[in-house]
Design goal:
Length: 214
């Protein structure tokens, strides 16, 4: 499916990675990302993986959606971008796949879940207090807005050990996510991935027009 990324006004093509068949571990995908993780962005300079790297490449290539090098706001923006990537996103992965960290011991998984979800609530509280910066939650969204909105979706939707996240506990993040749901780029993603009408504030399972997204 060919779409136009409205935030950057650049053409792109989406390609579903079918996790039901572990396509991310296929030889073809591993040539793009040897770690076998999603996402990958194919660029004229070659494939890029790691979410923060992809987002930074987009903002620097197109000089948009983030404070640019030389801007005094660049440092704080980078600090929080990498906090989301290295800390929040990494902890979410532990919650989603506890068996990868402690095996199938149910008690160990429960203990891990309790500890990590406690940390995650702290991460979201820090971001809640941050909303309203020029580069996060302000009048003009940045890549950090979209990244955090995706983590809100994941936290609410993917809870193998039981629900622990409630967006109403973070009203400023909730308002930011609600505003993003009307953006043309999010509407395009809704269509491409079958995300439903409120993918951040009332998320439901993906129902993409092709393949399967777990």
């Amino acid at each position: 499916m060919r779409l136009t990324l409205e935030e950057l006004r650049q053409p792109y093509r989406t390609q579903l990675v079918d996790r039901a068949t572990r396509q991310q571990k296929s030889a073809a995908y591993l040539r793009l990302n040897p770690s076998g993780l999603i996402p990958v962005l194919e660029t004229p300079q070659g494939p890029l993986s790691e979410t923060a790297a992809i987002l930074l490449w987009l903002t620097e290539t197109h000089a948009a959606l983030a404070p640019q090098p030389g801007d005094p706001l660049r440092g704080p923006f980078l600090k929080w971008l990498f906090m989301v990537s290295n800390t929040l996103h990494a902890d979410l992965r532990i919650v989603f796949y506890p068996q990868q960290y402690v095996g199938l011991d149910h008690e160990a998984m429960l203990a891990l879940h309790a500890g990590v979800t406690g940390r995650l609530k702290g991460h979201f509280a820090l971001l809640e207090a941050l909303v309203g910066q020029d580069w996060f939650g302000g009048a003009h969204p940045s890549i950090l807005d979209f990244y955090v909105a995706a983590t809100l979706r994941w936290a609410a939707l993917y809870a193998p050990m039981g629900a622990w996240f409630d967006l109403s506990d973070y009203p400023r993040l909730g308002s930011m996510a609600l505003r993003l749901e009307t953006r043309p780029s999010v509407l395009a993603a809704i269509q491409a991935e079958g995300l439903g009408p409120a993918p951040f504030t009332r998320p439901g399972p993906c129902n993409p027009p092709e393949g399967v997204a777990l």
